[in-house]
Write a structure and sequence with these properties.
This protein is of the alpha+beta class and about 190 residues long. About 30% of the residues lie in helices and about 25% in strands. It contains six helices and nine strands. It has helices at about 35-45, 45-50, 70-75, 95-105, 140-150, 170-190; strands at about 1-10, 10-20, 25-30, 55-60, 65, 85-90, 115, 120-125, 130. The strands form three sheets. It has a four-stranded mixed beta sheet, covered by helices on one side. Strands 1-2-3 form a three-stranded antiparallel beta sheet. A two-stranded antiparallel sheet has the order 4-5. A hairpin with a 2-residue loop joins strand 1 and strand 2.
């Protein structure tokens, strides 16, 4: 599960912070390159290689560690599938997934892996992980669904009118935004 927060500069929306949770580990990317950095993390072999489910040895006969292989040989190694199966954002079809789509197009330039209907990204893949939007399958807001389903995390609120670029926003607003984002992401993870 992931979410991003944006600054609204006129009509232009620019992500300035992204939060994601994967198997209980919450991570944050901040600043003007936050979405590109998040996308890089999603597609990186480093993330997969460092995950505890990933086998430490690839060649049991010679006991070669993954870390001993040159990077270009890592791509040739048969390994278990990426543990990320789904990339979920609440209302992502209308907002969040567009920013990931843009980063994926920069990387691959392949539009065919995404399904767009009436201006919404209703499906797609980043590597083998499927983009999903829980909001397409349940009704109501994230806040309402967290409350209705007795989730332990409640969605907060922030004033987007106070938001400017991450680099120029106040420390107070950075703290409020980080707390708000974390509650969103962890709440969505619990709901999903």
């Amino acid at each position: 599960s992931y979410n991003k927060e944006i600054e609204k500069d006129g009509g232009l929306q620019t992500p300035f912070i992204v939060g994601a949770v994967f198997r209980g580990e919450y991570k944050v990317w901040e600043g003007v390159n936050c979405m590109a950095d998040f996308h890089s993390w999603l597609v990186s072999n480093e993330r997969i290689k460092n995950h505890p489910d990933y086998p430490k040895y690839i060649d049991y006969k010679n006991a070669k560690l993954l870390t001993e292989l040159p990077f270009n040989e890592l791509e040739k190694v048969k390994r278990p599938e990426d543990p990320i199966k789904y990339i979920n954002a609440y209302n992502g079809a209308n907002y969040d997934h567009y920013f990931l789509w843009r980063e994926e197009l920069k990387r691959k330039g392949d539009k065919s892996k995404f399904m767009i209907s009436n201006g919404r990204i209703i499906g797609g893949n980043i590597k083998k992980a499927k983009l999903i939007d829980l909001n397409l399958h349940i009704t109501g807001s994230l806040a309402n669904n967290l409350k209705t389903n007795n989730c332990s995390i409640a969605k907060g609120s922030i004033n987007y009118d106070d938001m400017t670029s991450w680099e120029s926003t106040t420390e107070k607003n950075k703290i409020l935004t980080k707390d708000y984002l974390k509650a969103d992401v962890l709440g969505l993870e619990e709901l999903y």
